[in-house]
Amino acid sequence: MLTRRGFCGCALGGLPFIATAAHAQTTECAVFTPARQGETVPDDAIARLKAGNQRFTSGTSVNCDLLAQVRDTAHQQSPHAAIVGCIDSRVPPEIVFDQRIGDIFCARVAGNIVNVDIIGSLEYATKVAGAKVIVILGHNACGAVKSAVDAVKLGNITALLENFAPALATLTPSDGQRDSHNEPLVQKVAEANARLTAESLTRRSPILAELVQTGRLKIAAAMHDITTGRISWLS
Q1: What distances in angstroms separate CA 150 from CA 156, 179, 193, 223, one per listed residue?
Q2: How far is 127 from 121, CA to CA, in rounded Å?
Q3: In which domain, by residue range, is 152 found?
Q4: 8 domain residue, yes or no
Q5: What is the total count of domains within the chain?
Q6: Which of 143, 145, 123, 124 is nearest to 196 (CA)?
Q7: Any idea what the CATH number is for the domain that residue 139 is in?
Q8: Which of 15, 73, 102, 204 has the fewest CB within 10 Å, making it most exposed?
Q9: Helix 4-13 vs helix 15-29: angle between axes, to the nearest 10 degrees?
Q10: Confidence class of residue 27 from pLDDT cuts 50, 70 and 90?
Q11: What is the pLDDT of residue 195?
C-alpha cells in the first residue's frame, strides 16, 4: 500500500530528475545568438550533435516552445553546425540530432552528395554565418546508393548518380556481386561516399580549407541507421 509518507518520498525522490530535465530543456531551448555561437568551438558543436542523437535514441528529446524560437530568431540566425543529408524521409537531421529552429543549417539531396551549389551554401554557412562544423550524413539502405550500384539510367537521376563514382571505385572483387541486393556492398559504398564527400570539401573549396587549417571548422562524416536511429561517426 502506498502511504502518504511513501507518496511524499516518491515525489521528493523525483525532484532531482525533474530539476535536471527542466535545466536540460532550458539549455537546449535557448536559441543560438552570435555571442553563443562565438563561444562555441568545433568540438563543442560535434558534442552537441552527439548528445542530441543520444537523446533522440533514448526517447528523451527535448520539447521546446518552437514559436518562441521563431520569434527569437526572426531577425538573426547563428547556427552552430551545417548538415548535408539525404532526402530520405526517414533521416530528418533536425529530428535525429534533436536540434531545433536556428540550431543547424541543413542541405538535403539524394545520396548526400555535394555540387557547386551545395559547396557554396556550406561556404556561406561557415565563412559568412559562422557554423563550426560540417557533417556529411549518410544512411544505410540508401536508395540513391542502391541505384548507383545498379547503374540506373533514368532522366536527371543518371547525372546525379555519377557523383558516386569515387565511392564505387572502392569496391573490389572480394565485395561480391555488384548488385543492390548485396547489403554489405551497399553499406560499404554508402560509408565510402560519406567519407570521401567529406574529405573532398577542402580540396574543392579554398574557403573551407582555410577555415579548417585555422581551427575554426571541422568536417566530419557520419552514418545514420534507419533501424535504430543511431548515428555512428566515420571521422
Answers
A1: 16, 6, 15, 21
A2: 10
A3: 32-233
A4: no
A5: 1
A6: 145
A7: 3.40.1050.10
A8: 15
A9: 30
A10: confident
A11: 98
